[in-house]
Amino acid sequence: MTGREFVSVHTDPARPGVGTILLTRPPTNALTRQVYRELGAAAQEVTGRSDIAAVILFGGHEIFCAGDDARELRTLSAEEAGVGAGVGRDAIAAIAAIPKPTVAAVTGYALGGGLTFALAADWRIAGDNVKVGATEILAGLIPGGGMARLVRAVGASRAKELVYSGRFVDAKEALALGLLDELVAPDGVFDAAAAWARRFVDAPSAALAAAKAGIDAGLAAKPKQIAEERRRYVEVFAASRTAGPVDGTR
Residue 77: which domain range? Predict the structure, then answer.
């Protein structure tokens, strides 16, 4: 038993070598501190399992992840929110650091922290009806650790427009921007992700891990950047609590 409530790791004899990290927290797969910790633990599990050579990130057939849980955020002080942002950053970093090919199978929505979760994967396959967005500003907040990944995906100017507006981006535009890498029919997302993952099952694992680490090393945020992003998040969170309650997920 893993002791995890919302995040599980699955394998299928029909897809040897492919593991799935499954997020299950209906109805929207909203992210809490507990969920983030479970994601980090799942990342550690798949990293250490010799029977898993490639990994799918999946939230189910209805929705990938609608972002951080606003109900939990409303209970936090600014200091607690800063700690929580650190927990989230560590979890996403653990997902990104899995030394195996990873693919996000995106269905429904990937918003706010959910988009950051998807961006931690090496590749993103989505249904052609999905909506994605950096929606934190709609709740008076900023991404708690996802802006660097967003900038790497779309560039600074596009990232600013997406963060400033918090708008929902449809699948075709997300593909053009680089937020998504491949579109398929909505009911074929998981199978397409599994097919992508299977391509690497028999590849030399040590070489894949080294290649991924080498590419990602050039993209990693510096400690000072991480600290500054966390400081800004806490300041904005504190201001939002003064202005009024945090609404929705992000």
Answer: 7-198
Asked whether residue 171 is assigned to any structural domain, the reply reads: yes
Collect all residues with Cβ–Cβ distance below 8 Å to 87 and sequence separation of at least 6. 33, 36, 37
Query: How many C-alpha atoms does 147 have within 13 Å on its Cβ side?
Result: 22
Q: Does any domain span residue 185?
A: yes
- Total domain count, the chain: 1
pTM of the full predicted structure?
0.90
Distances (CA, A) of 35 to 32, 41, 101, 167, 240: 5, 10, 22, 25, 23
**Cα distance between residue 40 and residue 30, in whole Å:** 16
Q: Is there a domain that residue 177 lies in?
A: yes
**23 lies in a domain?**
yes
Q: Answer whether residue 77 shows pLDDT above 60.
A: yes
Residue 56 DSSP SS3: strand
Rounded Cα distance between 60 and 127, Å, is 12
Assign residue 112 the CATH number of its domain. Answer: 3.90.226.10
Residue 110: closest CA among 87, 88, 129: 129
Report which secondary-structure segment, H or E, holds 133.
strand 131-133
DSSP letter, residue 65: B
* Residues with Cβ within 8 Å of residue 35, at least 6 apart in sequence: 6, 7, 23, 25, 69
Tell me how crowded residue 142 is: count the other CB atoms within 10 A of its CB: 20
What are the pLDDT digits (tens) for 51-76? 999 999 999 999 999 999 988 988 98
